[in-house]
Amino acid sequence: MRLDFDDPGLFSFEDSFAGLSHLGTIKKKAILSARKDFEAVREFAQHHLRPLVLSADLAVQKDKNALPDDILALAVKHRMLSLFIPGFIGGGGSGVMYGINPCIEEMSSVDPAFQAGVLAGHGLGMAALTVSQNLKIFERVAAKVVSEERAGRPYLVDCAITEPMAGSDVEEFDLLPHARLVSRAGRVEGGALISGNKCFISGGHTANLHVIVAPFDLKRPAETLSMFLVPKDSPGFNLGRIEEKMGMKAGSASELVFDGCFVPNENIVYDGEDIPAAYRERILHSVLGMTRIAVGAMGTGVARGAFETALAFAKTRLWKGKTLIHHQWAQEMLTNMLMNVYMARAVYLEAGCVLFTAVLPGALPAFMNARWFERLYQSPIARRIRYSQRVRDAMLKGFFGKPREDNERLQFYSSLAKVVGSDTGMENCHLALEMMGEHGLRHEAGAEKLFRDIKLCQIFEGTNQLNRLHMFNHFIARNLPGVNPFSGGRP
Ligand SMILES: Cc1cc2nc3c(=O)[nH]c(=O)nc-3n(C[C@H](O)[C@H](O)[C@H](O)COP(=O)(O)OP(=O)(O)OC[C@H]3O[C@@H](n4cnc5c(N)ncnc54)[C@H](O)[C@@H]3O)c2cc1C
After folding, report:
1. Whose C-alpha in 11, 104, 162, 175 is 20 to 30 A from the C-alpha of 202?
2. What do you get for the CA distance between the two ends of the chain, in Å?
3. Which residue out of 197, 463, 465 has the highest number of ligand 1 atoms within 8 Å of its CB and is therefore the one to mutate?
4. How far, in Å, is the centroid of ligand 1 from the Cα of 463?
5. Structural element, H or E, at residue 157
6. Could you read off the pLDDT of 385-401 as tens digits, one per residue?
7. Which residue puts its alpha carbon closest to atom 27 of ligand 1?
8. Which residues constitute the domain of residue 190?
9. Buried b (16+ CB within 10 A) or exposed e, 194-222
10. Which CATH number do you get for residue 365?
11. pTM of the predicted model, to two decimals?
């Protein structure tokens, strides 16, 4: 069959070389700042976190309520909870594109449990608030995270979407109308009342503030899906059980229970019916676009951690009179593991470039941490207008009004990063255990913990099966009318 060169098909220049298309816009300052963040996280992860990781895992195995407060205190001391909060609000300003994902890889190579179970739950909550474009609420919460951290106290946020009967269905907009949701909000004088249950919420038991996603009308969830803030001590809200899960023990996966929990108007992040219909799907897509790339970085970190564990073993373990590292089969196996790390890393970095063009408006991230921007942002005129409806509308348009093909590309790349990172992490953990034999099964060797941890990355942020269908839908089928794996909804 002849190729039609007027139709770029699936492999236009932008589809194929996202990073290359984007190179010209990368500022030298942004790269320097990414390096600085990375070095700070490396120091924290390698010198402070590493010595505590295995004992924290064991402690929670014995008692699921023994959440590691000592690690959290260290994270506060090293300013890890505000790393990605913009500089103009006082945070570390590590950008979503260049800065934060290498930091996530670094942290996950040492402890995916603390990274995913505590920091990622917090990151998901903050990402949801960022994307909501409610500047007033975002600023209020971000400033609180920063000020509490400066005072030596953790202030954590989580994000509750999943419910006992609805996991994948709430991650995929096309499935939402068929989702068996139970959590809902009712409109009342001065706010809303939330009832229902959420489950498997990362960091629920350590969060000070819960970001809740629930519809106003269970019969029209796609149109009325909204976002609320619920402080942990709110009447009508209770923490349920902590799941006894196989891995990522250092972070709780929590049940949240709402029984007529009142949310005042100032804590309604957005009401789905106030969002233009064209942007509703984009909000969900933008949150997942960010967080799935982060899971890709997590998986890459685990792949690296498994490689490093196997390498350390191979350098010391004697076999047939020589250490393993001198045997060709071990050299090949280690090289395969290293190749996996580099391949997974290339994908999440490339996906970061797509995120930059698909969601973030113009040059915003490049000057977000500049002093002049902080001064401008705090100026009297900016203070007067920044919470106005006009500014909000402009921000919604800036973030969600991008061309359809940019969003399709982001959906493809973010799922690709998530699946490749987590599958690669799984493969490397498997290879590490193969190489290490019975020693790898011992808790103190670290490999079996990584193996238990990485499985969870294949499940959250949409299972890898669902992410594959998401990629099919937003890439292979994007120009094929009527071809949609989700069009039938849930049987
Ligand atoms: C450690 C951990 C932390 C988590 N943290 C959070 C959190 O902080 N906040 C939050 O909201 N959620 C969180 N989750 C929940 C997570 O997002 C869900 O587990 C995930 O979306 C999958 O949903 P599910 O487990 O209900 O699986 P289900 O949706 O029940 O899927 C079961 C199986 O069916 C398949 N499947 C489902 N639908 C389809 C379809 N249409 N077509 C084909 N196959 C399909 C799936 O691939 C899977 O194999 C967390 C989960 C874990 C494990």
Report:
1. 175
2. 37
3. 463
4. 5
5. strand 157-160
6. 888 888 888 888 888 88
7. 167
8. 160-274
9. bbbbbbbbbbbbbbbbbbbbbbbebeebb
10. 1.20.140.10
11. 0.94
